[in-house]
Fold this protein.
Amino acid sequence: MKQIILKVPSIVFILLIFTPLILWYLGIDTGFFDIILKTRVLPTLVAAIWSLSLISYMSSESKSDEYVMLARILIVCQVIIEISIPYITYDSPYYTWIIGIELLGFGLITLSAIIITSIVRKVFYARSLWFLFLEVWIIPIGALTLTPDVQKWNKGDKK
């Protein structure tokens, strides 16, 4: 899993996260794949893959497994919640709980960002804590700034 963050350029993560917005802006009809692209599925899965790859790489670099399993569980729960929200219709018994489910998803995002920040901080200890938190919490920022730094860090270790 850690090879994903090392091999995939950051622009690919950004394009995949913003694919629904780009397709909407360009007015491209996706037909059958409309449900996948225009809901939260693609951006959520890309963000989860990026986060899990970051966790795997950082835990292998720091030789520590502290909070890794908890972070993975939180990410999986977050993905389940974020993907299921668009499918809760007005007829569903969960419709009255939609705001609570949204808040739970936001809380999971924030909690997992705090835990992932503590994992990444063990390797990138010289980086400011608040910016590291923003990079992990807001995935497009992290994909633009943290992914190239992880790739440079990995190349520096092998020389």
About this structure: The chain has a mean pLDDT of 87. Residues 98-121 form the longest helix (24 residues). The chain has nine helices and no strands. Residues 30 and 46 are 19 Å apart (CA to CA).
